[in-house]
Amino acid sequence: MSITFACGVVIAVAHVLNHQFVAPRYDVAANLTAFACADAASVLLGHWWPAAFSTVAFLCWIALGVRTFNATMRSPGRARRSEGAPTPR
What we know:
The protein has 89 residues and is an all-alpha fold. Helix 2 packs antiparallel against helix 3 (48-74) and helix 3 packs across helix 4 (76-82). It is built from four helices and no strands.
């Protein structure tokens, strides 16, 4: 289980380091929910390494959520395009 959370951390950190990446809103919401639940379950079970990994991933998704929110406020069209809507021509 720790390896799964570690992979999630690597992916989340890679997204944060890629400053051009704006996550779709549904992706931010799904990952925040998933890592918050994983963190709570790991803490309740006393699994500290998975809890630490999921906490780091959760914090990365908070940062990505802020980036998505800011991109949506600056340019609503850009945020919609990142969610799979066709690009207007």
